[in-house]
Amino acid sequence: MAMNPQGRPSRPIHAVDPGAYEETFSGSKGLDQAEPLIFERGDFDNSGVDLPEPKGLETRTGGLERTARIGLPGLSEPETMRHYVRLSRKNYAIDLGLYPLGSCTMKHNPRLNEKLARLPGFIDIHPLQPQSTVQGAIELVGELARWLMTLTNTPCVAMSPKAGAHGELCGMMAIRAALDARGETRRRRVLVPESAHGTNPATAVQCGFTTDEIPADATGRVDMEAFKAKLGEDVAAIMLTNPNTCGLFERDIREIADLIHEAGGYFYCDGANFNAIVGRVRPGDLGIDAMHINLHKTFSTPHGGGGPGSGPTVFSEALAPFAPVPYVKKDGDTWSLVEHEAEAKADGNDPFGRMVAFHGQMGMFTRALSYMMSHGSDGLRQAAEDAVLNANYILARCREEMTPAFEGTCMHEALFDDRFLKDTGVSTLDFAKAMIDEGYHPMTMYFPLVVHGAMLIEPTETESKAGLDRFCDTLIQLARSAKAGETERFTQAPRFAPARRLDETRAARQPVLTHAAE
Question: Region Disordered: what ranges (predicted)?
Fold first, then answer.
């Protein structure tokens, strides 16, 4: 994939002077308490728990019991509570304010979903229980699968993938299995648009394919002439994100599907942005053969920090036989998981194998189905419409001071480039750091790579107009400040964050993790 030639500037030299910031003697600032690492403040000789030595205990460790200290700091209960409460205040969260990260739907997670996910019949089951004892849980997985197949108009879904990239892997492994079953092992080239998610080419290579990049046209969409020129007998598939990472709907998607199928390849669609079209567009109608769905983006669930996630993958009729085991099956009133390939083949399928030890993420399944059933089909459609409306509202309000990357309306993400910062001495990174001082998490920066100095904003459907106005007013004021020559406000930002601006390159190569090491 093409790389951004601009790079990301680290902290300017003149911002290193600690005198540029107002410090307090304690290190605390108002209600924000200074808090060292637990290993720095804890007492290694004492513990907050006082337990007597057990009497008459016979060890069963075979001589492997610990003889040295465990090496963990001891804190009292109030000290432990304060430590984690203080740390929590340093986190930005969707429950605290608008989370504008583009390409990752950071929406409000209804507490109803959390409550249902904690019901005893779901939270305390074990994956090795006999299937007869978890009929309700298996039925829930089957019902969620039915919703996903209905929303996408596809006949099959693999529920076991545990993340978006895992779902991509599932889809591409099914495509390879289908090609091998056809005896077309020469088809190993995968077409990947510039506007695709970055995991797409990595997944293709992981499955033994080579990748061939398709450039974007002036509108930020697939260049159709370039796409047609790359079709050939060795093409296995195209991996297309729709809406793409520029926040735009691929208008030629039906033609793309028809052309790739005529060439003998398959159409993999990255469903990470399904939140923009769910209830409005059924991807199966667009000709897709496989698409993963991020339950933790489109259908609620805690998001971030690397998980937890869930990425079920739907399949067209052409790829359905190659979906992995396990899958849910209903026979009369009995629900079961088809666990073994031999059993699947008895059903007329030819699965490419098994991806995980157990069947996906039960907590994710429960939250997602709760979200679907509480919204209903009309509510899901409205959520998608509101997400697109909110993004276009930001685009319209900010376009006079900031520069939209492309003309026209967008889908669920508003994308700006850095032309409005030209000759100001302020970069995209500086602008984002200044947002922290204003109480906002920065938007996605420098991505997608096809846009110079990109700023990708996704408000989702869960933000009110008042919240959007406050956010837009802040962006507009920052843009005007940069144009007015108030460069130091940006190059020294953030001034009010618990951790001030770092020399990011040096911090990555020479990390200082404790106060004592400074």
Answer: 1-27, 487-518
Q: How far is CA 382 from CA 184, 375, 385, 389, 413, in A?
A: 43, 9, 5, 10, 16
**Residue extents of the structural domains in the chain:** 112-123+131-371, 378-504
Enter the tokens of residue 241: 């994100």
What CATH number labels 112-123+131-371?
3.40.640.10
Residues 6+ apart with CB under 8 A from 337: 131, 138, 326, 327, 328, 329, 359
The superfamily CATH assigns to domain 378-504 is: Aspartate Aminotransferase, domain 1 (3.90.1150.10)
Strand arrangement of the beta sheet that strand 210-214 belongs to = 156-158, 313-315, 290-293, 266-271, 235-241, 189-193, 210-214
Token readout for 42 is 């804890």
Over the stretch 128-149, which tens digit does the pLDDT of each residue have? 999 999 999 999 999 999 999 9
Query: What single-letter amino acid sits at 241?
Result: T
Asked if residue 20 has pLDDT above 60, the reply is: no
Alpha-helical regions (H) of 153-219: 164-181, 199-206
Q: For residues 81 and 61, what is the distance between their CA atoms, to the nearest angstrom?
A: 33
Ordered alpha helix ranges (H), 399-455: 428-437
The tokens for 517 are: 């090491």
Instruction: Report how far residue 170's alpha carbon sits from residue 159's, in angstroms, rounded to the nearest whole number.
Output: 10
Whole-angstrom Cα Rg for the chain: 26
Sign, CA dihedral 512-514-517-518, equals: positive
Res. 7 pLDDT band, cuts 50 70 90: very low
Which pLDDT tens digit goes with each residue over 369-395? 999 999 999 999 999 999 999 999 999
- The neighbour count for residue 415, using CB atoms within 10 Å, is 27
> Residue 31 is encoded by which pair of tokens?
């209600």
Contacts of 214 (CB under 8 A, 6+ apart): 191, 192, 193, 194, 222, 223, 226, 227, 230, 238
> In whole angstroms, what is the distance from residue 436 CA to residue 97 CA?
12
* C-alpha span between 437 and 478 (Å, rounded): 11
Contacts of 113 (CB under 8 A, 6+ apart): 300, 301, 366, 367, 370, 371, 374
What is d(CA 275, CA 285) in angstroms, rounded to the nearest whole number? 17
Answer whether 188's CB lies under 8 Å from 234's CB.
Answer: yes
